[in-house]
Design a protein that fits this description.
Mean pLDDT: 97
GO cellular component, one term: cytoplasm
Strand order of the largest sheet: 1-2-3-4-5-6-7-8
Catalytic activity: L-histidyl-[protein] + phosphoenolpyruvate = N(pros)-phospho-L-histidyl-[protein] + pyruvate
Number of strands: 8
Order of helices and strands: HEHEHHEHHEHEHHEHHEHEHHH
Helix content: 40-55%
Organism: Floccifex porci
Oligomer: single chain
Keywords: Coiled coil, Cytoplasm, Kinase, Magnesium, Metal-binding, Phosphotransferase system, Pyruvate, Sugar transport, Transferase, Transport
Distance between the termini: 20 Å
Enzyme class: transferase
Bound molecules: phosphoenolpyruvate, magnesium ion
Length: 323
């Protein structure tokens, strides 16, 4: 089984009728880069930078961050690296910063909300990223974007930081893509508008599911509601992809759903362009992509989207995969 998958390591992720997608890995830092490459990852679809902040005694400096981003970009040897800007708050805390007391931290002051409020922290990270951009193929994405205004504001700060560095005589790549995570239902619904401004989307299903179903992703009691295969989630994914494609933008997914074998054929059929997952899931996903036609995947997706319940969707995929 393992050996059978290993031969797919350097192959393209392409269906038997010629539809190509990209299979990438999620990483928390440089230590994970080798695993992505060894498992045939075509890029990094999510670099969770919060670990850099959580593993530090104080806010990491621009220089510390620059070194960390440079190392990952160089390690990926010119393959695309999507770096997510700081996603802290919710359940993720820092020893050196007092978060405000809130009733619902997951609905509160976190991620891009904090970054747009404390712009010095945000600017330091963006400076480090811009400086590192010349060492590989960098894409930057903002987490937890809820409104078009937030995206525009974050993008404006990025542009300002970039111009500031250039004025200082520092080299910055001129093809950094700037995109956003779609993990709040409001942004999935408005995807066609966001797509005028963002270079790409990456769907964060871990949060998208919890916010859509109003079910905490950590809660055991309501875990029955945490349903990646609920048709409502599939429809939000579809809206996101259609909204992006209408403006010629690409869409990835970096939530756990992207690597779930039962989800891969549906997501492929919905037109997802990039799947980012744990390194160890990549080769199996490639095997799946190579063994189906895009036409069949599209039919399967259309069938799933029309179902009433998650169980019905799962039965539909199971019978498809059994063939
Ligand atoms: C997500 O929400 O799907 C995601 C990838 O981000 P995280 O799991 O870090 O919240
Ligand atoms: Mg998230």
């Amino acid at each position: 089984e393992k050996e059978e998958l290993k031969v797919l390591k350097n192959e393209a992720s392409i269906t038997s009728d010629g539809h190509q997608v990209e299979l990438a890995g999620n990483i928390g830092g440089y230590a994970d880069v080798e695993g992505v490459l060894n498992n045939g990852g075509e890029g990094v679809g999510l670099f969770r930078t919060e670990f850099l902040y959580m593993g530090s005694k104080d806010w990491p400096t621009e220089e510390e961050q620059f070194q960390a981003y440079k190392q990952v970009l160089e390690g990926m040897q010119g393959k695309k690296v999507v770096v997510r800007t700081l996603d802290i708050g919710g359940d993720k805390h820092l020893d050196y910063y007092d978060f405000p007391e809130e009733m619902n931290p997951f609905l509160g002051y976190r991620a891009i909300r904090l970054c747009l409020d404390q712009t010095d922290i945000f600017r330091t990270q963006l400076r480090a990223l811009c400086r590192a951009s010349v060492y590989g193929k960098l894409c930057i994405m903002f987490p937890m974007i809820a409104t078009v205004q937030e995206f525009r504001d974050a993008k404006a700060i990025f542009e300002d930081v970039k111009a500031e560095l250039i004025a200082e005589g520092v080299a910055v790549s001129d093809d950094i893509q700037v995109g956003m995570m779609v993990e709040i239902p409001a942004s999935a619904v408005l995807a066609d508008q966001f797509a005028k401004y963002a270079d790409f989307f990456s769907i964060g299903t871990n949060d998208l599911i919890q916010y859509s179903m109003a079910a905490d992703r950590m809660s055991q009691k309501v875990s029955y509601l945490y349903q990646p295969f609920n048709p409502s989630i599939l429809r939000l994914v579809k809206m996101t992809i259609e909204g992006a494609h209408a403006h010629g933008k690409w869409v990835g997914m970096c939530g756990a759903m992207a690597g779930e074998p039962k989800a891969v054929p549906i997501l492929l059929g919905l037109g997802l362009d990039e799947f980012s997952m744990s390194a160890t899931q990549i080769l199996n996903a490639r095997k799946q992509v190579k063994s189906i036609t895009f036409e069949d995947a599209q039919k399967l997706a259309a069938e799933c989207i029309a179902k009433d319940t998650a169980d019905e969707v799962l039965e539909t995929v199971a019978s498809y995969m059994g063939k």
